[in-house]
Each structure stands twice: as structure tokens, then as C-alpha cells.
Amino acid sequence: MSGTIGYLGPQGTFSEEALIAWIGADQAARERAYPSIPACFDGVASGEVREAIVPIENAIEGGVSQTLDQLIAHGGDVVIRGEVIHPVHHHLIGAPGTSLDAVTRVVSHPQATSQCERWLRARLPDVTPEPALSTADAVRAVVAGESGLAAVGNRRAAEIYGGEILAEDIMDSPDNRTRFAVIGTEEADAPPSGPWTTSIICAIAQDRPGALLSILQEFALRAINLTRLESRPARTGLGRYVFFIDAEGSRTRDLPLQAALTAIEDGGIAHVTSLGSYPAVTPPA
């Protein structure tokens, strides 16, 4: 298996920024960029890279649907080994010489434009954002593209591809942060100490009133704090959902957490897919 680490590329994405923050610029310079989140998962699953870093949750927009759906699709074969919480500063970027008044089209990753919705609506009310695979792809296309085109991206992408920042910090919240997941095929080593997070997917065994409450009660009875709860379509029929749950603790170390997961599974409440236990990162205040 390769020792390299993949990320959602190309150079200049927020995923690359998070990767640099995680392992340092010298190491990151030798890592592998993938064109999409599914490609990052495929690279890990095939052994092309040892790990990859992908966005999983944003402070403004919530869960990143592509990452969550890939975790469902891989059924626990790709797990979370770590996390990085990284500040996100969005800028409007155009080709050199472009003025803000001349912008007629805006392109970027849908998560990025959603995080800047209020600014875009106020300053460019007649412009409908267009999707790109990544913020850096958008910046690269804008610099090489037609006049009147602008992208939502970061300062690093503007520097790499020769773009010009037309407006700074256009995100809807100044405290915008994204949580990135470090994914791999093997769980992180069992912790001797320190705060850890365990991520699971729960698929309700039988749709009935109170089914989700039954899951949550198993954690509450054991005083286990949940740091995230989110639903996604199960892709097995309309109205069927699975639940992503992050719980404090390690699945391999903490007996109350082990007991809760066993009760949920063995009690026939839900099928539990483990997405790994990993060191927890406390968001900055």
C-alpha cells in the first residue's frame, strides 16, 4: 500500500489547506490530489493511498453530503482515523483586471457558494452560482476563462493560479470552520488516554414510533455525550434514512460505549456500522 495521503484537489483547495495544517507543507508537497470526494474514497479503498482527507462537516452548511454518502456506500470498509478542524475564509476571485461590477457569473463548489449565500444575494443578486468540483478548480477555470466570470475560493488558490481577489471574507459567518475527516481502511490505534470520538451509522431495524429515541436512550442511560446526530437517505427507498452519530469515547477502550453499541445491535433496535474511533479535536473557542 502506498504511504501517500490523498486529498480533494487540485492544489489550492481547503482540503489541501487542512492537509498542510495537519502534516506540514513539506510532507503535503508530496501527496496526491484527487478530482472528487468519491475519487478520494476509491483511492483509499484500492490501496492507491494510505489515507485521504475529505470535508465532512461545516459550521454553516452542516454535513457534507458526498462524504456522508460515500461512508454509507463503503459500508465500514473505509473508516475515519482522525479529524482536522480548519478555519475557512472565502474570497471572490477573478482574472487579473476583472472588476466586481463586471461579474456576471460565479462558479465554485456548491458548499462554498452556500456558505456565502447572503453576500452573493446582496452584492450579485442577478447571478446564479454554478457548480464546480472544487473551489480550486473554479479559480483555475476563472483565470483561464471568459470575462465576467468569478470564483469563490481561498487566497492560496488565487496565488497559485494567478487570480485577483475582488472581495475578501464573503462567507456568511466570520467563524466559518470545516471539519475534515482523515479516512483509511484501518482504525486508529487504541488510545491509552485522552479524548476520543467514535463515529457510527445506525440503520433502524424496523420503522416504528420511538425507534430513534430507543437508540438515543442507550447512550443517555450510560451518560455518553453525543456530539453529532444527522440523518441521510438510506438509498433503499423513499422515506428510509440512516443516522450518523458521533459519541464521546473510544469503542475499544470505554466499556459504557461498548455496552451501548452492543445493546443497540443485539437488542434489534438498529444495525450499527462502525466508522472508527479517533482522537477528538476540540474546536477553537
Question: Could you characterize what this model shows?
Answer:
The chain is α/β, with parallel strands linked by helices and 285 residues long. The chain has three domains: 5-87 and 176-184, D-Maltodextrin-Binding Protein, domain 2; 91-167, Periplasmic binding protein-like II (D-Maltodextrin-Binding Protein, domain 2, 3-Layer(aba) Sandwich), CATH 3.40.190.10; 196-279, ACT domain (Alpha-Beta Plaits, 2-Layer Sandwich). Helices cover 30% and strands 31% of the residues. It has ten helices and 15 strands. It has helices at 14-23, 25-28, 37-46, 65-73, 110-115, 117-123, 135-144, 155-161, 211-220, 255-266; strands at 5-8, 32-34, 51-58, 62-63, 79-87, 91-94, 105-108, 130-131, 149-153, 164-167, 177-184, 196-204, 226-233, 241-248, 270-279. Strand 13 and strand 14 (241-248) form a beta hairpin. Helix 9 runs antiparallel to helix 10 (255-266). The chain is globular, with a radius of gyration of 20 Å. The two termini are 38 Å apart. The model has no long low-confidence stretch (mean pLDDT 91).
Summarize the structure.
The protein is about 30% helix and about 30% strand. It has about 280 residues and is an alpha/beta fold.
Secondary-structure topology with pairs:
Layout: E1 5-8, H1 14-23, H2 25-28, E2 32-34, H3 37-46, E3 51-58, E4 62-63, H4 65-73, E5 79-87, E6 91-94, E7 105-108, H5 110-115, H6 117-123, E8 130-131, H7 135-144, E9 149-153, H8 155-161, E10 164-167, E11 177-184, E12 196-204, H9 211-220, E13 226-233, E14 241-248, H10 255-266, E15 270-279
Parallel strand pairs: 1-2, 1-3, 7-8, 7-9
Antiparallel strand pairs: 3-4, 3-11, 5-11, 6-9, 6-10, 12-14, 12-15, 13-14
